[in-house]
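Usage example:
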Amino acid sequence: MSTVVHYLNQFFAGLGAEEAADHRPVHLDGPQGPGRGLAGAGLTVDATLACGDDFFGEHEADALATLLGWIEELDADVLVCGPSFGSGRYGYACGVLAREAGRRGIPVVAAMTSDSPGVLAAEGAAYIVPTGSNVAGMRDALPVVASIATKLAAGETVGGPDEEGYLPRGLRVNALVDRTGAERAIDLLLAKLAGDVATEVAPSGDRVSPPPPVDDLASVRLALVTEAGCVPQGNPDRLPTRHANVWLRYDVAGAETLAAGDYESVHAGFDTAAANADPNRLVPLDAVRALQHEGRIGVVHDGFYTTSGVDTPVATAARHGQEIAAELREAQVGAVILTGT
Amino acid sequence: MEPRLADLEIATFAVDEVVEGTQTGWSDGRLTLALPQLAVGAGDPALAEATVEVVRPGDSVRISNVLDVALPSARIGGALPSARFEESLPSARIDDVRVHRLAGVAVLTVCDWAGAGFEGAEELPDSLVDMAGPGADRSPWGATTHVVVRCVPAPGVEVAEADRAVRDAATSVATTIAEATGGATPDDVRTIGPMPPADATLPAIAAILQVASEGPLVDTFLDGEPLGEFAPRVFDERLLHEGRLTNGAYDWPGVRNVTAAYQDLALLRKLRAAHGERSRYIGLILAPGYLDGADQKRRAAEASAELAAGLGADGVVCTTFSSGNSHTDTMLTVQACERRGIGTVALVCETNGGLTDHVPEADCLVSTGNEDELVDAWTPERVVGGDDRARVGERVPAVHYLGGLAETGDARWTAMPA
Amino acid sequence: MFVTALPTIAQMVGANRILRGVAITHPTGDPSLPPDEEHEMRVSLVRRALEMLGTEVEARTVWESTS
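Running the assembly step on the lines above writes:
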């Protein structure tokens, strides 16, 4: 018998509405709310875990530790999160919980709108069933969720996104085919030359319009950000050299330059000799200061932000960008120079 | 004015079984190997140890620390003149150049560089071929019988010299066993010569083969010398069949071009087969990858495109060498060709993060698979090549299986959305 | 905006203001120059970066570091 665990927020678990959004995590027996609908679709929920959306958002580490602890104690074969529909906070919580459960080897199914922040937060760890923006979509979503969760719990193979009804997770799964890559290349090229263009792979489409130009540079606060792994000598906070899942911020208030010997690069993807001899070759603080003294820039932000961009999954890098951007906006930074290797 | 060049004949002898015996020889599909007599690495002071053993598909064996695979091959008769770039392309007529090759057995080289203590070698990714188990089909070489040449460098030897010794040991075995076919009748004879005239309305296709020469343990060799820096140039395919372009690059195994691939590229075989039917095959361009600066990359891309245009190409197939910024070289080459009105297809592998690089003009790509996909764990009965860096009992990313994702198009893996 | 020696990668991931850096190993430096000249080059590069920040651009635009 497989163990199915269901995560809900305070509202869907029947703990209360917005006034219960700060509810600590709770562990309830059997299905609650939409979990009963899953039973109707053939999936028996053994335990329901619920948490207030605000509690999760404000005490994420604490909430995760509790929830994941229960999930492991229960020895879950599959975790179902939501459906969270269009909810931002609830969707985010579902996505983060999915990601962390996924890292512990637990298969996860969630359901939310395709543009929910939970989709990015999940980093491909969950099978996410796309839904409409509100609870009217419950009746359509539950059978699809139940179907995928049943397969996962039984250790069966789940088919492709179109076949099973989930959002492409951004994963690409390998398959052995009849023709060699060479044969496929020639076939594709000849078809293209005859007017029929197709491709086996394309870049993922996340596009942002260019922000309007800074209208008064002389009064703007400018920050420096880098993926070149520039850190204080000795890497005191142990920035990983590859697969970095953190970014760091270091204070440069009053510093005119990044002196050799004070800073180094720990990026594993390039020869760091030139950069270590002069860290301004990665993070051009000396030049930025010169232009600040000249009056071309208003203020140089006190901190510079750094990570090492080697083998970093795109979803993680996107999250880093969002997090750093949030801090910069909070600090009223109006312009950024980002350097990359 | 084209000099008249003779054809290169490739005589292939099928091997259905490999047995050990007192005398090395080939007869009727049976290859007998006198392993002690193969004298692997004998007398080479750069090697402390060199052993040979036979490993077969289906054996519960994982081969680790794999460097290269080569087809047993021997030149019978004359040879094309030196292929060094600073000399002019071979212009003398050559007679009777015949290469004897064995099919169904390969020479596979193993050496634990990190174990030998070479600086930086611990950065080289683990390199595997599984002869059975869940990973057996992750490398095309899991389905071939191998004569495994395992070398241990002598202490104190400089890395390039040790690598030379390892490669020479393998070449010596590959040549000796191919020479065992002596005067026998081959199972197949193929001729590599100038392409016959074909319907001029068929699209003219050229191949751009990207290779890189970045120094010891990450190198590519022509006639035993590192390629070094070179400008894109039209390259004589016969040199590949003669086995004169060899691999010495031991980074990412999944996307590594082994010597056996250069000896018999699927791409060139298919282009020749399609000649006169669906297309016209008009030539091969050898191009550099991993160039260091943005300008260098752009100039080389433009040069490749110019050569393709000069050959009269309507379309080109662009291969990629390994992972990382070589993908930028590929994309810039695609861009330069497309801007000249030459249609392109490029072969690239993927990662969990998608494509490494892309340009808007790259609308036609072959995916050779996702490097990051995890392959189920396996515990074989035996590991050949060293237990360190063999990942026994661990899930292994696909990129660690030799040649499975090769961006020359020699393998059959691809990636699908999930 | 983004200074990198690999502007095509930057375009692919959707960066909009891209300035071509000097090299992979030193996007805002040039060890082949004497220190004074290198500093001047870097100031000039950052000046160009500021110019780009102050300019309206189309999506995924690449500028060279010298106009």
